[in-house]
Amino acid sequence: MWICMLYNETDTSVDFQLCQDFGLTLSVFSLIYLLVFFPLGLGYNLVIIVVNLSNKASMTMPDVYFVNMAIAGLVLNLVAPVELLSSTYTRWHAWEYKNEVFISLLILFNISSLVIMYSTTLLSLDYYIERALPRTYMSSVYNTKHVCGFIWGGAVLTSFSSLLFYVCHHISTKMAECSKMQNKEAADTIMVLIGFVVPAVAVLYAFVLILRIRKESTPLDQDSARLDPSIHRLLLASVCVQFVLWTPYYMILLVHTIAGAPGYINNPYYLPTYYFLRCVSKMLAFSSSFAVPLMYIRISKNFPNNLQRLLARLNC
Questions:
Q1: Nearest to 291 by CA among 230, 232, 233, 241
Q2: For residue 239, what pLDDT band results from cuts at 50, 70 and 90?
Q3: pLDDT tens, 32-55?
Q4: Contact 33, 286 (CB under 8 A)
Q5: Which residues make Cβ contacts (< 8 Å) with residue 276, sequence separation at least 6?
Q6: N- or C-end of the chain: fewer Cβ atoms within 10 A?
Q7: End-to-end alpha carbon distance in the chain
Q8: Burial 208-242 (b: 16+ CB within 10 A, else e)
C-alpha cells in the first residue's frame, strides 16, 4: 500500500501531510496517464507494427528497429495499467500486489527496457555503418531482423539472471542457495550496468563517429542511395527522448544500489520522498512507449508512404 499508510498523523519522523500530498499527486498522474497517454501509446505502436509489417518489401533498416521498439512498447503498455492501478501508485487502487504478480511484471518491464535501449543503441551504430560503408549490406534489413531477434533473446536471458535475486528475496530463507542471494542491490546493479551504462557508452561512441564522418566532405555526400536525411533527425530525437525518459529510472536504481545497503532509504524521514521519486521515474519510463512512436510517425518519410499503400489496398 502507499507508504503514508504505514504511519499515523502523530508520527514526527515523517512529514505526514507531505506524504499525503505525494500520494494524491501520484494518483492524479496515474489517472492522467491511463486516460490520455495509455490509449495513445497503444494506438501508435499498433499502427507502426501493422503498417510496416504489411509493407515488408519497402521497410528500411531504421523501420525494423522502430518496429522492434514498438513491440517492446506494447509490452510496456500492457504492464502500465496493471501497475498504475495498484496500491503503489494510487490510493484508489483496483487491486493489491502479490509476490508472483510483482515478479512477473518486473520481468516484462526489464525485458522491454533492455529491448528499447539496445534497439536505440544498435540503430545508432548501424546508422554510422550505413553512412560510412554504403552498399555493403552490413546494416541491411535482413541482418537487422536477425539482430532484433538476438536483442529479445539477450534481454530475456539477462532479465532472468538478474531477477533470480528478486525471486530469492521473496521465497523462504531455508534454502541455502537462495539465502546467499537475497540482495536486491545486486539485481539493481546488473540492470544499471547492462541496461543503461553499456547502451549509453555505445550510443556516445556512435554519435562521435557520426559527427566525425558528417564533418568530412567525401564523394559519398553526392551519393543518392545514402540514407534519407530525415533519418538523422529521427535518430537524434529518438535517442534524446529515450535517455531523457529512462535516465531517472536508472538513477533511482543506482541510488538504491549505493544507499540501500547502509539503510538510508529505510529511514522514515527519506522514505516517502524516495518512494515518490521511484514511482514518478517509472511512470516516465512508461511514457517512452508513446513518445518515441509519435516522433517516428511525424519525422519518418517512409512511414507515410507505407501508410498510403496500406490504405489503398484496404480501399480496394
A1: 241
A2: very high
A3: 999 999 999 999 999 999 999 998
A4: yes
A5: 22, 25, 26
A6: C
A7: 54
A8: ebbeeeeeeeeeeeeeeeebeeebeebbebbbebb
